[in-house]
């Protein structure tokens, strides 16, 4: 089922075909001189998928204000359709990661059917115990899975189990748990007891996982708790995942670390421990900025992929990370931003595939520092645009993502169908 007509995509591609052919041949020639078969890289890129966050197709905003865009999705079916546009043009985003209760739906089999008709499926499910829902018995103001009150913890556990059940109906096979639990004042929370309560609650969720499911524990240094967070870094996440069992692993959201932390090193450690669940890709300058992937620090994203490609190349047992975007938009059309992030993630993957692993091993073993550094730079500095475009073209996508999307008039069309949503501010300035 196409949302953007096949003719629109073909019309957008037509004037670019000749130039695309020659650019791809030129890059192919350059890579061949390096002993790299461009078609083999292209085949791998085509296999690569990054899931879309359902919440990413709406405009998010900051703590201070939200500026809604035109044609904001009204419900999960609209979100699915917007995700379908991203996938149709990029051919790289067949998975959708839902967030409950934001994406609550009365008929999950209908939702699943619609996704499948778009050639899509449901990736990891996300629970939400970081905000209170209407008519909820116990507030999460002072925590959820780690709350001092047993009934509040039980309510949070129950919600997670309900999310697993919804995910089962949708064909998902993973639950991502991120909690905002922590403290804002020294002394507010007994650190060790709060962590013990986390393990106790999380074990009850773990027990409810179907056999073929995984549980992704997402750490975050701070926010909304600004003095301490219960699962604040990969250390706590790893301890928890270890305590829970083999189905529990650690999810790395690129924006959830202190500035300058070496994320690719964390990734390598988690791979070695068999505990890398996967990623929430985004970019940041200061904190959990949720900017488009690779928009600020593309080399960092490449270095993360360098670790991933190395692990795949070396056949590390059990290596099977889940790839998802997690970003928030306040000043761009979310569909445009998601397309650009998906292409950026693919780009970093393709660039990492170009690194000469044999030469890098030799340079590392021989302590030839500059050659090792240059081998990475050589991959990163290769403009793989014609390769990405060719992969999309052959799969029925758009050579020029932005141009095609804008020419389709999709945003104007949904703006006419969907009522304008309210903006607003956090009221804290
Ligand atoms: C928290 O900052 C987070 O990264 C988690 O993944 C949430 O589920 C997501 O953002 C959406 O708010
Ligand atoms: Mn995240
Ligand atoms: Mn985040």
Automatic annotation (TrEMBL):
Keyword annotations: Isomerase, Manganese, Metal-binding
Entry GO MF terms: isomerase activity; metal ion binding
Highest taxon of the lineage: Bacteria
Official protein name in the record: Sugar isomerase
Organism for this UniProt entry: Piscinibacter gummiphilus
């Amino acid at each position: 089922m196409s949302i953007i007509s096949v003719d629109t995509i073909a019309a957008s591609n037509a004037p670019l075909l000749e130039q695309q052919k020659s650019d791809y041949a030129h890059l192919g020639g350059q890579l061949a001189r390096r002993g790299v078969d461009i078609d083999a890289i292209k085949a791998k890129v085509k296999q690569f998928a990054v899931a879309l966050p359902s919440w990413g197709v709406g405009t998010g905003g900051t703590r201070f204000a939200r500026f809604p865009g035109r044609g904001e999705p009204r419900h999960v079916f609209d979100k699915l359709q917007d995700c379908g546009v991203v996938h149709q043009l990029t051919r790289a985003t067949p998975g959708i990661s839902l967030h409950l209760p934001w994406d609550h739906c009365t008929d999950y089999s209908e939702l699943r059917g619609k996704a499948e008709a778009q050639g899509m499926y449901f990736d990891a499910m996300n629970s939400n115990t970081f905000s209170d829902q209407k008519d909820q018995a116990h507030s999460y103001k002072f925590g959820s899975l780690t709350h001092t009150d047993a009934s509040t913890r039980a309510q949070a556990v129950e919600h997670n189990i309900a999310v697993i059940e919804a995910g089962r109906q949708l064909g998902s096979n993973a639950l991502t748990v991120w909690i905002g639990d922590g403290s804002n004042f020294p002394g507010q929370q007994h650190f060790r007891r709060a962590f013990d309560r986390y393990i106790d609650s999380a074990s009850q969720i773990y027990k409810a996982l179907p056999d073929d499911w995984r549980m992704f524990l997402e750490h975050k240094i701070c926010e909304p708790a600004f003095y301490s967070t219960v699962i604040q870094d990969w250390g706590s996440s790893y301890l928890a995942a270890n305590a829970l069992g083999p189905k529990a692993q650690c999810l790395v959201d690129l924006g959830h670390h202190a500035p300058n932390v070496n994320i690719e090193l964390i990734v390598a450690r988690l791979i070695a421990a068999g505990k890398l669940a996967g990623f929430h890709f985004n970019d940041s300058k200061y904190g959990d900025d949720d900017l488009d992937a690779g928009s600020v620090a593309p080399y960092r994203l490449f270095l993360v992929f360098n670790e991933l490609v190395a692990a795949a190349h070396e056949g590390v047992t059990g290596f099977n990370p889940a790839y998802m975007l997690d970003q928030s938009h306040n000043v761009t059309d979310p569909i445009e931003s998601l397309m650009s992030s998906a292409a950026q993630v693919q780009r970093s993957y393709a660039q990492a595939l170009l690194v000469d692993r044999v030469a890098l091993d030799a340079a590392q073993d021989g302590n030839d520092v500059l050659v090792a550094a240059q081998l990475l730079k050589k991959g990163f500095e290769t403009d793989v645009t014609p390769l990405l475009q060719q992969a999309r073209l052959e799969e029925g996508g758009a050579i020029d993502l932005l141009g095609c999307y804008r020419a389709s008039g999709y945003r104007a069309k949904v703006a006419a169908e969907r009522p304008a949503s309210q903006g607003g501010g956090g009221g804290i300035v």
